[in-house]
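hey can u run this one w/ FE2/S2 (inorganic) cluster bound, need the structure tokens asap thx
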Amino acid sequence: MTGPMVHSITIDGVQVSAAEGETILQVARQNDIDIPTLCNLEGISATGQCRLCMVEVKGTNRLVASCTAAAEDGMEIVTSNERIDRYRRMIIELLFAERNHICAVCVANGHCDLQAMAQKLGVNHIEFDCLHPELKVDASHPQFEVDHNRCILCGRCVRVCDEIEGAHTRDFRNRGINTLIITDFDTPWGESQTCTNCGKCVHVCPTGALAEKGRSVAEMQKRRQFLPYLVMRREGVR
Ligand code: FES
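ok here u go:
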């Protein structure tokens, strides 16, 4: 009988091993190598949406999303250099430019993953024209609200609702710059037939797009402890 296949890879010059099927990001984290992420959240599936976790793999000029790319034997990976860091900053700038992220008046100010990532990567201005779309705020739910102006379309809410809560209340509508997160068949949240009012989507949301009602500026702290706990309990009963 053979055991699980183990690959040997190099990340930033350090030789590490990876089990079959593990992603580059998982292996990096196991070895305390930091790769910035935004759409990725431990406990829900990886979809490679934000591209912030991109890395260089020797032998290909294309940057690879480390959260979805499997580690393969012999890979030589670089997680940070001038090119990668520049593109990461550009991604953050484009996210800020695409909608309305005025941190000073946001419920999640000080508790926002986008804001924290901008600080971490040294993004202190935006070189692109801000689009400032006027998008809806849906406050029809008795406990929660969604402000599409703050949404970065990471899809964490869609995945946690589908994969952890099992309701699949949320999904995407449209494509590209017109993409929006919707409830059921694009009905107001308060009229949803499937929402269980669990609030998981609110707490995995990286920004102030999903928030509890009644929160003022900087008051919306996200509680995510439930996610690793639920995943652990489920794995325990399999
Ligand atoms: Fe990998 Fe977003 S964290 S693409």
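Residues 82-98 form the longest helix (17 residues). anyway lmk if its weird
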